[in-house]
Transcriptional regulator, LysR family (Cereibacter sphaeroides), 307 residues
Amino acid sequence: MLPLRRSIPSLGALATFEAAARLESFTLAANELGVTQAAVSRQIKLLETDLNTPLFLRAHRRVVLTPEGAALAATVTGAFGRMAEMIETIRQPLAPDTVTVRASLAFSHFWLLPRLADFRSLHPEVKLKLVAEDATGDLRKERVDLAIRYSRPPFEDGRSVADHRDEVFPVCSPALLERLGLEAATADPRSLPLIASDSVNPAWLTWKSWARSLGLDPALARASDASRLRFNHHTDSIQAAINGEGVALGWALLLSRLLAEGRLVRVGRTSLVPEDRYHVLVPFGREPSPACRALLDWIKECLESDA
């Protein structure tokens, strides 16, 4: 197969041909495209020369497609139509005065969304767009007004305007402990079914890395390797823990409401405070709008209340 650029004429020529074929007139095509009739004739002639095939029969004040021209017109019109549909599908609408926030799936699901109604009641005039992705991205190249990132400075693409530590410890459903006749404070995770994580993001601790950081018995790591339930995302691990499937590692800040509501309980007394922290980032070279500033102040207030 020939390279695309060598086998296909210019898109400009094809667009001119499509208009002329659809309208059956070089003059009408010129009016639609905003060029002269001579320019349309020249593009068509170049296309016919490139294909070594006549595409139109020139009649008095009108043009008629040749069989080859009709075949090409059907293909080009269909291709342009599919391109237009896909472009409209993926095009992001330009919404003025919208604050775009980027956060991980877990932070968005467990921390931001449960609190969002409070902000919207305080600032109903602010338009929000939430982008939940675990990929870090580059704030300098994206249409993002602020991001919540679990990491450590320095950051190449933004400045941290607020941060908050977190604490990691085992969690499970109280129903699981009740079923096994165990107390949350004294239960040993090694004696419970462990929900393991296969996340490739080093910021999300696994049982093995959590135990190693705390200098715990490697038996816990071996037990997690033998786990019969594994997930590649933290949100799924926590949902399984809520359902009573076993014990998962939980981040205190993210799960604060679930713990306060009693849907999850802390297992044992061992915990780890990682060096990574949640940072609220603003892109370099961009000052927050009043709407973005309102959201920033609200997030800071919420983080301080969770301290």
User: Anything to note?
Assistant: The chain is about 45% helix and 20% strand. The domain at 4-90 is CATH 1.10.10.10 (Arc Repressor Mutant, subunit A).
